Amino acid sequence: MDIEALKTLKLHEFEEAATGYRSVSDMGSQAKDALEQRITVQMRKALKGEAVDAAVVQLREVAKDFHYVQVECGLIGTALNAFAADMRPAQDKLKRALSEAAEHKFTVGADGSVAYPAAGENPGGSPPQPGSASGTLSEQVRAIQRQAGNFDPNPNYAIAQGIANRIAEALKEATDADQKWAPQLRKLKADDDLVVSAED
């Protein structure tokens, strides 16, 4: 997961897809119930013979297919909603960090580094140099960065470092969510046929 992918990820599209899958799940449930509780019952009441018995057997198979649609589409809808819910905090964190960087007129690189301009004063009178901060997830490195921020004459350093660290956190959270849910969604794939097999 990179900055551009997380920033532009349209989570509402995953939620809309989840709603669609839940609707299909509901339709599958209704169709299954209609076959099992109404249609086959009415056929048995109204008709007799081998043809009816054979038709009822076939309709039970179709009902199994609708049950499969109900269950699998429900699972897909749940997985899509869970993915969006896990991804949203990371995306919000990234957007807040990018907004703060823009407020300070810092430049965020594609790798998550934050470039900041010269500001403040050196004891010798020359202005402190501009610089760049790279995010880290290591608490030990962050402690060193905080100490360095106390001594750096450029006040932008500490601000940029905080933003870079939040960007690193957001990307880590998003990557974790992606790695968690992508395999789950890949598993929910069936053969393109009308038979619900054990493999499905």
Task: Provide the descriptors you would attach to this structure in a database record.
200 residues; mainly alpha; 3-stranded antiparallel β-sheet
Explained architecture:
This protein has about 200 residues and is mainly α. About 70% of the residues lie in helices and about 5% in strands. It has five helices and three strands. It has a three-stranded antiparallel beta sheet with strand order 1-2-3. Helix 2 packs antiparallel against helix 3, helix 3 (about 50-105) runs antiparallel to helix 5 and helix 4 (about 140-150) runs antiparallel to helix 5. About 20% of the residues are buried.
Approximate strand percentage = under 5%
Return residue spans where pLDDT drops below 50 for at least 5 consecutive residues. none
> What is the first-to-last residue Cα distance?
30 Å
Overall form: rod-shaped
Mean pLDDT: 89
Please count the helical segments. Answer: 5
Helix content, binned percent: over 70%
Radius of gyration: 28 Å
Q: What composes the largest sheet?
A: 3 strands, antiparallel
- Number of β-strand runs: 3
